[in-house]
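Incident log entry.

Two folding requests arrived from the same account within the same minute. Monitoring flagged them as a possible duplicate submission, but the sequences differ. Recording both here for audit purposes.

Request one:
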Amino acid sequence: MPKDAIAYQAAHTELSRLIAETGALTCSVSNSVHRPAVECLLRYALPHIDGLDFSDTPVNDRGYARKVLYTHPEGHFSVLALKWMPGAETPIHGHNAWGCVGVIEGEIGCETYCCRDGGQCEGDLTSTGRILAGVGAVASVEPNPKGIHRLFNPTGKAAVTLHIYGMDLSENPTAVNVPYQH
């Protein structure tokens, strides 16, 4: 077996383990600990996951490709991989569920926002800062209206991220997003 096949097998095994452990966790503990616990699982597994194939996944008009890798049979969570081309960016959004994200390849920028109108988010948003996250970085977000943000690739190289969301995204992978106007 060629060396790259061994590396792929190890990455596939770690992703399978992450999915299995996330499934066991989301079925056995309170919803209130899902996000921080899954964030810990992702932090441990992320360095061992790479080589995700996007050859069958088109890039959207915003410059990124989204691929659903797994959805729990009872809808407890979904795992997605995203490939970000240079200059790619999401709209400003929140989420309908908790979420965790880790950077597998490249660098991803994240700009966070808060509501100027005291939390109702019916008015303008204010940027609360930007970060640039590299390989191995892991973050999580609480459901809307907390955690309003946008992701972007400010570099000249493609980036890959792994996302775990606390809802079933098998029918519509964008159903987790709550868009905002800025």
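Request two (distinct sequence, not a duplicate):
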Amino acid sequence: MSTKTVFIQGPISSEFIGQSIAKHQSKTTIGAHNIFLGQVRADVIDSQTVAAIDYTAYEEMADEALSAIREKAFAQFDLICMHIYHSLGTVKAGEICLFVFVSATRRKQVYEATATIVNWIKTDVPIFGKEIFENSTFTWKKNSL
């Protein structure tokens, strides 16, 4: 299975998401899609508001982990298509940083697969976020399920 490019510099645009959906209209065996969009929150931590997250990754290791997730997902669920995109660089509060797009013949598969895939990404992929506060200080983000 070939490794796909999953990293996008900066936020993931609504145009990119829309184009991804449109590309699947010709795949008429698909009966259901499910999409997860991760958005940067303006969390308040120790009285400081998060203005953005600066994402970095060990890209080679992350690509390997994402490829393994892809293989596990196709083995565990009856999927037709699966796409994962994650931001690198600065993503402001309110912008999209993670886009998971799953397609199958039936809706039950896409719901279960999407939740499982997002959890695997959070626990298994070496992507790191530095939360940048409005006053330009920062802290390293801790992933939570």
